[in-house]
Specification:
Strand content of chain A: 25-35%
Number of domains of chain A: 3
Largest sheet of chain A: 6 strands, mixed
Number of strands of chain B: 12
Number of domains of chain B: 1
Number of strands of chain A: 21
CATH class of the largest domain in chain A: Alpha Beta
Order of helices and strands of chain B: EHEEHHHEHEHEHHHEHHEHEHEHEEH
Helix content of chain A: 25-40%
CATH class of chain B: Alpha Beta
Mean pLDDT of chain A: 89
Shape of chain B: globular
CATH superfamily of the largest domain in chain A: ATPase, nucleotide binding domain
CATH topology of chain B: Rossmann fold
Low-confidence stretches of chain A: none
Oligomer: heterodimer
Largest interface: A-B, 31 and 28 residues
Strand order of the largest sheet of chain B: 3-2-1-4-5-6-7-10-8-9
Radius of gyration of chain B: 20 Å
Structural class of chain A: alpha/beta
Structural class of chain B: alpha/beta
Number of helices of chain A: 11
Helix content of chain B: 40-55%
Chain lengths: 401, 355
């Protein structure tokens, strides 16, 4: 039996990530190779310098090739699915309809109303379609039907959630990848990809919020009753936390990033014994300096509380907060922030946990599995969209061992 | 443009306010000024005065805390706003090393940028003998002010008054030279010589200037032009620096006896001292009352760092719609409930960090 190979590329604000997965029919997806390098030319999840982004893509491909060579093999990648994030990603509810004229609903009616929904979603001008998530059906005035087959009525309606992104942002990524001789296939939304990897059926059924805390933006996806009911992205991410530290303590960006990763926490350190973080002379411009842990926690807490407030407002507007019986699942680099689960519990009143990718093997053991959620989910999403379509050699020009 | 009244002189902090007041007094009050400080006591000697952070600090000063200075300016930004009608250029004078000079200056300059008003900052860096803490405080905000302002001069007081060891004399000399440099702009507009710069051209030059170095000298006697040139060239501001000089604004202030050959000596010598291709602007001030028998030469050198010269570092730009932030300068602002999420949350919310 031949394998199907999928590759995914994310040109993120902090990291450019290339993942290759291999799947046999009925078997679990296996991560074959993975490379993640610091990005350049990207701000707030949007490419601001094509040449620099191209260089990042070249570097990440080079890293995959280097790893493969070190293992005595060779990989030459032809194409990859594009994983995107950013505040240009939006979800819009749409409704399509078809006449059934008093008879029972058949599979043909369902297919037709689904196709109508796709056609409506296709007429989106400057927007690229990322996903059309079916919500529920309505037969005449009876709404909230999950399976309309056999029901009778005059009209069948389908409610969908149309996930879109700015076509220009996708084209920028394609241009950047093209410069590195990599063809980009369908765009996938990073947060729903991560959700695909970390959620189980129980969570999707009983209501869950997935937060993908990236460097330049924070993606969110809400599932309830087994379907995606809301999704989007907020233009605030880990970079904002770093930037706040830069401003508060007059430190360089790189040192602030290190301090954030090593010492930041989402809740305010509640006593004077929190102490100070001593910065070495070499890292702080030739002088020995120290900063207060409590002050650092105040800076980070202010930013994270604000981000959660934005999310809370959004959930309340759509009356979704009370439906999240399975709480919040955190993915992305920002999920590593200490005490973030506690802060979310305090601010949203529901539990939070870090998402661990499931249904994929071969994840590196040296880092937190949560960091691989988006890449793993993107491979699963690519397989779900094209189960057997890509042969081994469509995705790879060559893989030799 | 309405001549000198379109240039605002803003003194920030106690020392900055004092210098601004002295400059205004030297111009018989015919100079548009505001003085801003977190210390209410400054109000007694300065008018018009804006008390920064009155609610937060109760007029007691920023206590050397730069963040407190920044938040104080944020709190009082609407009071500063009321002095900005018709302002086309803002010249800010301050002293670094304390909380108000560093913190409030930064926020004020950022606010001016949002309003599209070019700002030129003259900030003194403390004498070495003032201690490590003040030096460190000064250094911590210099880069941020440099990025936010259109033109900035950080003037080590050590360099301005290197010839004396007496503390009072050192402060007096430094202050006098600083005032010569700052008042140059007003003198240019008020008493232009034969080579003149009008206000719009001055604004145009300064809007794109960037970080600069500044020297001012005064000489008299037969060889005053040659001596002025020599002293300019040997001053730390002109002979020092690590970046490439890409523009020079040279001013010669003198009485009716200024000779063409003297202009040639100073301007020609200064231009010749730098081999790189650069923009050179020259202007003279004819002020017999202030400079009769003497000449004062002012040199403002604007430089680019090696990084900028090679095109690697994007120059910070003023955004037409207002917001500018180092990290997010090229990306679309994230706005929520009218607030720019790209600005630090603790600053927008006025949260004290309790240093």
């Amino acid at each position: 039996m031949s394998s199907t190979v999928y590759a995914t590329l994310e040109i993120g604000t902090s990291r450019t990530v290339l993942a290759i997965g291999e799947s046999e029919a009925g078997e679990e997806m296996k991560l074959v190779s993975f490379a993640s390098i610091p990005s350049t030319g990207v701000r707030k999840s949007q490419i601001i310098d094509i040449n620099q982004a191209t260089q990042s893509v070249r570097s990440v491909i080079g890293e995959i090739e280097r790893k493969s060579k070190a293992e005595g093999g060779s990989i030459d990648i032809a194409n990859a699915f594009l994983v995107i994030n950013g505040s240009h990603v939006n979800a819009t509810p749409l409704q399509s309809a078809t006449a059934i004229s008093g008879r029972n609903v058949t599979q043909e009616d369902v297919d037709r109303v689904t196709e109508n929904a796709r056609q409506i979603a296709g007429a989106t001008g400057d927007l690229a379609s990322l996903d059309i998530a079916e919500q529920d059906y309505a037969v005449d005035n009876m709404a909230g039907i999950l399976n309309p087959l056999g029901m009778s009525g005059r009209a069948l309606k389908l409610n969908v959630l149309h996930l879109t992104a700015d076509k220009n942002r996708i084209q920028d990524a394609k241009t950047a990848a093209d410069g590195a001789h990599l063809e980009l296939r369908d765009p996938l939304f990073a947060c729903t990809c991560a959700a695909e990897a970390v959620l189980d059926a129980h969570e999707k059924k009983n209501g869950v919020l997935v937060l993908d805390l990236g460097g330049g933006s924070t993606g969110y996806a809400v599932y309830d009753n087994e379907v995606l009911v809301d999704a989007g992205s907020i233009g605030v991410g880990g970079d904002h936390v770093t930037n706040d530290i830069v401003h508060a303590f007059s430190l360089p960006q790189s040192l602030s990033e290190v301090i954030k990763r090593r010492h930041a926490q989402a809740t305010i350190a509640d006593d004077e014994e929190a102490g100070r973080i001593v910065l070495s002379p070499s890292s702080s411009g030739g002088e020995e300096r120290s900063i207060s842990r409590r002050s650092l926690s105040i800076v980070v807490n202010a930013r994270m509380k604000e981000l959660i407030a934005i999310i809370r407002e959004h959930l309340e507007e759509k009356e979704l907060l009370a439906r999240l019986h399975c709480g919040v699942v955190l993915c992305g680099g920002g999920a590593q922030l200490r005490e973030l689960d506690t802060l979310i519990q305090e601010e949203l009143g529901i539990p939070a946990k870090i998402g661990i990718p499931k249904r994929i093997s071969g994840l590196p053991k040296d880092e937190s599995p949560a960091l691989y959620a988006t890449a793993a989910g993107a491979l699963l999403a690519a397989r779900a969209a094209y189960p057997e379509e890509h042969s081994f050699f469509d995705t790879l020009k060559g893989i030799f061992k | 443009m309405n001549g000198t009244k379109s240039i605002l002189l803003a003194g920030i902090g106690t020392a900055g306010s004092t210098i601004a007041r002295e400059i205004r007094d030297a111009f018989d009050g015919n100079l548009r000024t505001i003085m801003c400080d977190t210390d209410a006591a400054t109000a007694q000697m300065c008018e018009p005065f804006v008390l920064l952070g009155g609610n937060r600090l109760a007029g007691r000063g920023a206590g050397g805390d730069i963040v407190a200075g920044r938040m104080a300016a944020e709190e009082s930004i609407s009071a500063i706003d009321s002095h900005l009608d018709g302002v086309r250029i803002a010249v800010i004078v301050t002293t670094l090393g304390g909380g108000t000079g560093g913190g409030a200056t930064l926020e004020t300059v950022k606010h001016l940028a949002r309003k599209g008003i070019p700002s030129i900052v003259f900030a003194t860096v403390p004498f070495t003998f003032e201690g490590d803490d003040r030096q460190r405080h000064a250094r911590s905000v210099m880069r941020m002010i440099e990025d936010a302002a259109n033109a900035s001069f950080f003037i080590p007081l050590n360099d301005l008054a290197a010839e004396t060891d007496n503390m009072k004399e050192a402060f007096d000399i430094a202050r006098a030279r600083l005032e010569t440099g700052i008042t140059f702009f007003w003198r240019l507009l008020e008493k232009p010589g034969y080579l003149r710069l009008d206000a719009e051209r001055l604004r145009n030059i300064l809007s794109r200037a960037g970080h600069g170095r500044f020297a001012a000298v005064e000489t008299s006697g037969e060889n005053r032009a040659r001596e002025a040139l020599d002293r300019l060239l040997s001053s730390p501001a002109v002979s020092g620096g690590t970046g490439t000089v890409r523009a020079i604004l040279c001013g010669i202030l003198a009485g009716d006896d200024l000779r063409l050959s003297e202009v040639g000596i100073v301007a020609g010598g200064l231009r010749k001292a730098f081999s790189e291709p650069m923009r050179f602007d020259l202007a003279t001030v004819n002020d017999e009352e202030s400079f009769g028998g003497r000449i004062a030469a002012v040199a403002m050198l604007f430089e680019s760092t090696p990084e900028e010269s090679s095109g690697n570092k994007p120059k910070s730009v003023l955004s037409g719609s207002g917001q500018k932030n180092d990290r997010f300068v090229k990306s679309e602002a994230t706005i929520w409930h009218g607030e720019n999420m790209d600005e630090p949350t603790y600053l927008r919310k006025g949260i004290s960090l309790g240093f």
